[in-house]
Amino acid sequence: MINATHYYLERLLNQLSNDCGSAQARIRTSTTMQAVKFAANLHANPMIRSLPQVRQALHRVHDCAEKRMEVLLDQQLKALEIVQSSDELRRDYGRLVRHDWSFLRGDYGRVYVHADREYHRLLHRLVQCENAADAAEPPPELEQDDQDHCAPAP
Question: What is the DSSP-derived secondary structure letter of residue 1?
Answer without folding.
Answer: -
